[in-house]
Amino acid sequence: MKKTRDYWFGIAISFLLAGLLAFLGVAAVTSKGLGWGAAALAAYAVMFGGPLAILLAVTWIVYLARDRRNVPGHVHALMFVPTLLAALIVPVSESIRKSQWDSFRESHPAIAETHVNLSGRTIWLDTREASAASGASPYMEPASADNRNFSRFRRYPGPDALAKGVFPYDGARLKEAAARYVYLDQAGAPGASLPLRRLPYPDLGKLPSAYAYGEAGLLVYQYFHYADRVEVAPGIARFSLMTEQAMESARIPGLAIFGMANYTPETMARVEINGQAYDMGGDAAGSLLGHPCHLSHGGSPVLLDLDQPVRIRWQAVEEPGAWREAAMAVPAFGKAGKAGSGAGLVRVRLYFLPDGTVAAERYQEIRSRRDELAIRATGLPPSARPHVSCGAYAGYNPQTVRLLGD
């Protein structure tokens, strides 16, 4: 029976190849910011490891032919296991790193922020640890009827920012110690600051039980920048389509999607519904006076009892800091409007009217078993008819979406 030394050449090649791959693998996983260096390491692996791998395979085949396939098992192991273990250094390391990163992200989730500039001057926001892909620009001009865009982005905490204590959130919540909002200067360094007034968190009710990604994904922090202060109002963020479908299945009591139609002469920048900060989305609600219809039907979630009067208050870009207030009742569906299992979330469209009052229309999307969409709506409120000629149903294609009687 042949001894191990009779296969020394193949075993030597195996250890040489394993040593090369181990060296390159360790270099890859211990170096930060390799960039093009990763391509160089891969090139070395192919350039030097490729010929060694071919030579190892040929040697193994020669041993099999010479010994009529009676090569001892431990020789097979010595010829291939070291190389296999060396080749696993990078994928195993990446798997461990990904697991650690996922655990870090779960403990330190991304935070959604919306900034509204009502200060009357240009400001430079704190966009440290923010994703450039989500539109994070620190430069922000004052809001106006012509410049209605808000700054909306997500901030992703990194280990360095957390270690330095410069990230203002602890998990999904703003830190208790956050008492001032620090602006950046044009060079990106911390500069001037203003007192930060913190408003209460919304009652999320049973929303987290229907949402699999944690509280942070349900919240949006709206920062309202005034001349002498910054107010931060946490609110329920607008649902994605998948989140909305999950909420429909959960059938959470009191959950409704509110949309807006502004027929006042001013540009609305901040809205509260029953004391809850309303997520305005990406821009202020400009005046629709003179427009026959407003066809959009999106909106933001609110938790409240629709059978009780709804209190609305809002601020306009033209007079920041001054609150307007109104109260109204959301009309109920008639007996024919009792929806079945195919009903989506209840939706409410608010009509802000020139006389300072607010009217509401309730509607709901009904999808049949054949996936056909219909709309049940209470109809355009009488007080809104002098200013707008079409209600919530106008946002749908009448050729494909039926309007059901109430």
Automatic annotation (TrEMBL):
Transmembrane region(s): 7-29, 41-63, 75-93
Domain of life: Bacteria
Keywords in alphabetical order: Membrane, Transmembrane, Transmembrane helix
Name of the featured protein: Uncharacterized protein
Record lineage: Bacteria, Pseudomonadati, Pseudomonadota, Betaproteobacteria, Burkholderiales
